[in-house]
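Hello,

Our lab assistant flagged a job as stuck in the queue for most of the afternoon. It eventually completed. Since we weren't sure the result was trustworthy after the delay, we are filing this so someone can double-check. Below is the sequence as submitted and the structure that was eventually returned. Let us know if re-running is recommended.
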Amino acid sequence: MFKGSIVATVTPLKNGNVDEERLRELVEFQISNGTKGIVPCGTTGESATLTYDEHCKVIDIVIDQVNGRVPVIAGAGSNSTHETVFLAKHAKEAGADAALVITPYYNKPTQKGLYEHFKHVAENVDIPVVLYNVPGRTAVNMLPDTVIALSKIKNIVGIKEASASLEQAAQIIENTDEDFVLLSGEDSMTFPLLCLGGDGVISVSTNIVPGMMSQMCESFAKNDFIAARKIHYKLFNLFKGLFFETNPIPVKKALYLMGMIENEIRLPLVEMTPENTERLRQILIDLNFDLKH
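-- returned structure --
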């Protein structure tokens, strides 16, 4: 269902508000460069600091602009099960192809609690659900046994796996049905996870290099592993640079340097330091970007 390079898109801001014009332009940039899906209102989209109205607006805009050309996996996670159901229902009503649902953060549920949370969402909203495991953000790691159990629920169709554990990913791939999708949640782990049998990536870097990320996944799918590996290493410094500071600080700075969005991010995140900006600028120059700022 979901394969290849899928972008976790930023939410462009202008004067403190969602910049609809730039958001639509970003969608077009992605689709025209081969991206196979769009994820609005994930971590990279600053979902934690969007109001409910803004969250729903961003998803509505993206679905409208995509117009059925690629799947839209709408961010719908929260540390509240009730709020998650609300956001997933909006995603369904807006016409999203799936909902991306993060493990509840801060309240640190047990593995049983995680299972019941996702089960409740899946049973109360008739939309495909992609689990999202990112323990570095949430302080809880959803273990393979929990994912495997959840994969048996009809409309839980895959996972964005960002634990950085190849062993954990391998256990999930080995013990779930062929049609259960495993997507990398870390750009630097995409090539290794493809080698294990993963299906693609929900990517930060694709905001910047959609063509190359798409080409890496497509080369791998055609069994051209050497070409895919070359792209992996070509982009490796970018993968690291986009995490010099907390995501999405660096990726929004990169898009600003490229002239694609305004230089705005919402508190409590702040602008990238001058030192790290220059390091990131050099990485982009090395990739032959013609920067506007």
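-- support follow-up --
The delay was a queue issue, not a problem with the job. The result is valid. The domain at 4-222 is CATH 3.20.20.70 (TIM Barrel). The longest helix spans residues 52-66.
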